[in-house]
Specification:
The chain is α/β, with parallel strands linked by helices. It is 33% helix and 24% strand. The protein has a seven-stranded mixed beta sheet, covered by helices on one side. Strands 8, 9, 10, 11, 12 and 13 form a six-stranded mixed beta sheet that branches. The protein has a three-stranded parallel beta sheet with strand order 5-6-7. Bound molecules: zinc ion. Residues 56-389 form the Amidohydrolase-related domain.
């Protein structure tokens, strides 16, 4: 069946970006035509039509850092530890659907337990579940007792063990390798956030083995030493990139330049709760902390957007709320939308598949009430999501 989706305006994500009274023709999961509504309607009179006056059509959004196996409740880790895999999978299917409710048509899952996100990915791809396209890492590599050890990715630090651990993820069908290069926030009795968990040489082995399997590497790194080592090792993305040292923030210009020169992207990993940070660490530090992202962009480093959905209160159904941070930092709306669509697709190796509204790409679309180019928060007013050609009506329609 052909679908004809039309709205008062359409932002395609390309250079000639805005189409008044725009329409998209969808056939067998692909975008087959894009243009003025009248033209497309004439060319496809039999298509099933969805028309949205007062709305905007955009490329489906890409949340580049989520954890489907965590439930975003008050105690996500305890909930995970208390759940068997079957129960966990039910919750993950529900959260995958919540991502669609928010107009998110692609998520990158950067750490699950037992490859559960890979199973959800495959079930969505087979059409057994309703959900976004999922890129999944499986259990993140970490040291014994290290950050997120409870996801099952603890590894010995000798070369053979590291290579075997990467190869196992490739066998499991992972789309990417995730390594906890530094400590993190949520794991009791593990290294501090600024402390490195792996040496530069160990990260190099992980990157080398991942390349042999054709897999990109996402490095969780809060610590400046870990960021420096991850960049030198040639990872694909640095997650968080918070520049922490033992005595506070420690931004390193030469490392930023190295990231720009080698095309390493940063994924921020900040949920809609970003404005609460000042109350916790003080407004000054919070400002510097958030400013690191504009500093990266100004230096020419690609920044993509993830929310770490699954962590406490970091919900799957409000991606738009997280984007407010970038507006607060002074980015214009079109730039923010590109970061959450075409630039994310490029960074994740999906640029020929999704991220723009152009013929030949998969039909990943979101229709929102209003005009997010004029008012970013309109992005939260999702009327319809189309993921890989399949329409999804948001359940908690605003
Ligand atoms: Zn994470």
């Amino acid at each position: 069946m052909r679908l004809l989706v039309s709205a008062e305006r359409m932002w395609t994500g390309t250079t000639e970006h805005l189409v008044e009274d725009g329409a998209v023709l969808v056939e067998r999961g692909l975008i087959t035509a894009v243009g003025p509504r009248a033209e497309l309607a004439e060319s496809a009179p039999d298509a099933h039509a969805y028309d949205f006056p007062g709305h905007t059509i955009l490329p489906g959004l890409i949340n580049a850092h989520v954890h489907l196996s965590l439930d975003a409740g008050a105690e996500p880790i305890n909930t995970l530890l208390a759940s068997e895999d079957d129960e966990l999978l039910n919750g993950m299917a529900e959260r995958a659907e919540q991502a669609l409710d928010a107009g998110t048509t692609t998520v990158r899952d950067l750490g699950d337990r037992n490859g559960t996100a890979i199973r959800i990915r495959d079930a969505v791809a087979r059409g057994e579940l309703t959900g976004p396209r999922i890129l999944a890492a499986g259990p993140p590599l970490t040291v014994h007792g290290g950050h997120c050890w409870f996801l099952g990715g603890e590894v010995e630090r000798d070369e053979n063990s590291l290579r075997r651990a990467v190869a196992r993820r490739a066998e499991l069908g992972a789309d990417t390798v995730k390594v906890m290069a530094s400590g993190g926030q949520i794991t009791p009795n593990s290294p501090a956030m600024w402390q490195s968990q792996f040496s530069g040489d160990e990260l190099r082995v992980i990157v080398d083995e991942s390349r042999r399997h054709g897999l990109p590497v996402a490095a969780h790194a809060h610590g400046s030493d870990a960021i420096t080592d991850a960049v030198a090792a040639g990872v694909t993305t640095v997650e968080h990139c918070t520049w922490l040292g033992p005595d506070g923030m420690d931004e390193r210009e030469p490392v930023i330049r190295a990231m720009r020169d080698s095309g390493i992207r940063v994924c921020a990993g900040q949920s809609r709760n970003w404005h609460g940070l000042g109350a916790v660490v003080g407004e000054d530090l919070a400002r510097r902390f958030h400013r690191r992202l504009s500093n990266l962009v100004e230096a020419g480093v690609g920044v993509i957007i993830g929310t770490d959905a699954g962590l406490r209160d970091s919900v799957f159904h409000d991606f738009a709320g997280a984007l407010g941070l970038y507006e607060h930092l002074g980015f214009d709306n079109e730039r923010i939308l590109r970061m959450a669509t075409s630039e994310a697709a490029e960074a994740l190796g999906l640029g020929r598949l999704t991220g723009r509204v152009v013929p030949g790409l998969r039909a990943d679309l979101v229709v929102v009430r209003g005009d997010p180019l004029a008012r970013l928060s309109d992005l939260g007013e999702v009327a319809l999501t189309i993921a890989n050609g399949t329409p999804h009506h948001p359940r908690a329609a605003a």
